[in-house]
Design a protein that fits this description.
Layout (H helix, E strand, L loop, with lengths): L2 H21 L2 H20 L4 H10 L3 H23 L15 E2 H16 L4 H9 L4 H18 L1 H7 L2 E2 L11 H27 L15 H4 L4 H19 L7 H13 L13 H4 L9 H20 L9 H20 L4 H10 L3 H20 L16
Helix pairs in contact: 1-2, 1-14, 2-6, 2-11, 2-14, 3-17, 4-9, 4-11, 5-15, 5-17, 6-7, 6-14, 7-12, 7-15, 16-17
Length: about 400
């Protein structure tokens, strides 16, 4: 255990919590705490979206995708109850992430799929890896913000000039209702799980590398968590987020906001950009602590930092030139792709599917296709892909 880091992390977490509730309100404070819990869960399980897609598409390892299906099944069930009843802890009417299906979604999610394999992390992976001490992911995060800004600058073009169907909810746009849509999605999750069984039998892939851990009760705060346990916790925390702020968990809108604020401070008026119209633009003039996505992101980074310090794994290292180049290129692609695709692996994939939005399923398919292409690009930067002959992946 890295006790000095643990102490510093806890002190910063407490000070930031007090600052948030003093500057804004208790709702923001609660969301920040949820962010801390998300960061700890992601770090303890090394819960990956990028690695899950890469292992699946390269050697047929299905462990990560199975964890995704469990997470999505639980979240879908909870979201169906919350959205159909309007349940809320704060009085805000809950609304899921349901976005248009069109060219921007297809292009954006495909680009994101490539980018997350080059950057070695998705949106959530970037945040918890930064908190966990990965030096290269700092470059990915900075490039992610830059790509988000570029996507925000081009946002109007993609929204107004590219064809798209209106938002399609399996619950509200089809006449199925939430119960009918829930059944449909449960069947889809079951079919995907059955498919993973066939893939595993055919490919006989290497298993994931076991994470360092310990024994007994210490395993909770100093060891590693099983993927399936983390999947359950992430689903519960996403549902809790929906009942507190009225929307599911998201990440990348904050990156565009951070970049926009930086440009505004440098004298560039981004408020005229189409992306920053309405409520999004209003956030440019407010404290960043008033943005719920931002405070959750801060919580994720700090939660991961505290967890890594408890494990004794916070050890930033040198960055190889190839890795640095891939991190920058990957971050730019993810930032740009997320703006076009109405979100990332969290807002579009996790939140979208749990919200019964067709765009979430399209995002999943296109990001996997992007991952397939990225497997050929990664070696150009010196990045390794899992091989069927490996003992672990």
């Amino acid at each position: 255990m890295q006790k000095p880091f643990v102490t510093v992390g806890i002190l910063i977490a407490i000070i930031l919590f007090i600052t948030i509730i003093g500057t804004t309100n208790w709702t923001q404070g609660v969301l920040y705490i949820i962010g801390l819990a998300l960061g700890m869960t992601l770090l303890y399980a090394r819960f990956g979206f990028t690695s899950a897609f890469r292992r699946l598409m390269s050697v047929g390892n299905v462990q990560g995708l199975r964890a995704h299906m469990l997470m999505l099944a639980i979240a879908t069930t909870l979201f169906a109850i919350i959205l159909s009843t309007g349940f809320s802890f704060t009085g805000v009417t809950p609304a899921g992430y349901v976005s248009p299906v069109g060219v921007s979604l297809i292009v954006g999610s495909f680009i994101f799929g490539i980018g997350m394999q080059l950057g070695n992390g998705c949106a959530s992976g970037t945040l918890y890896s930064v908190g966990g001490g990965s030096s290269s992911m700092i470059l990915t995060l900075l490039a992610f913000i830059g790509g988000s800004l570029l996507g925000a600058y081009h946002f109007t073009f993609w929204m107004e000039n590219m064809p798209a169907f209106p938002p399609i909810s399996l619950a509200e746009s089809t006449g199925l209702g939430y119960f009918g849509a829930w059944i449909v999605q449960m069947v889809l999750f079951a079919l995907i799980y059955l498919l993973t069984i066939q893939i595993a039998k055919k490919k006989n892939p290497p298993m994931m590398k076991p994470l360092p851990t310990t024994m007994g009760w210490k395993k909770v705060i100093r060891g590693s968590w099983p993927l399936l346990a983390a999947a359950i916790v992430l689903a519960l925390l996403n549902a809790l987020t929906l009942t507190v702020r009225g929307n599911p968990w998201g990440i990348t809108s904050a990156f565009a906001l951070w970049g926009g604020k930086a440009l505004m401070a440098a004298g560039v008026d981004v408020s005229t950009w189409g992306y920053f119209a309405g409520d999004t633009g209003a956030a440019l003039t407010q404290t960043v602590l008033a943005d719920s996505t931002s405070v959750m992101n801060f919580g994720i980074i700090l939660g991961a930092f505290i967890s890594a310090s408890l494990q004794g794994t916070f050890k930033p290292g040198k960055i190889k030139p190839g890795v640095a180049g891939a991190a920058i290129v990957g971050g730019l692609m993810m930032g740009y792709g997320a703006r076009l695709a109405f979100g990332c692996n969290i807002g579009a994939y996790f939140g979208g599917i749990a919200s019964f939005s067709l765009h979430g399923w399209v995002w999943m398919i296109m990001a996997m296709l992007g991952t397939s292409l990225a497997l050929f690009i990664r070696p150009l930067f010196g990045l390794k892909n899992p091989k069927s002959t490996d003992s672990i992946c």
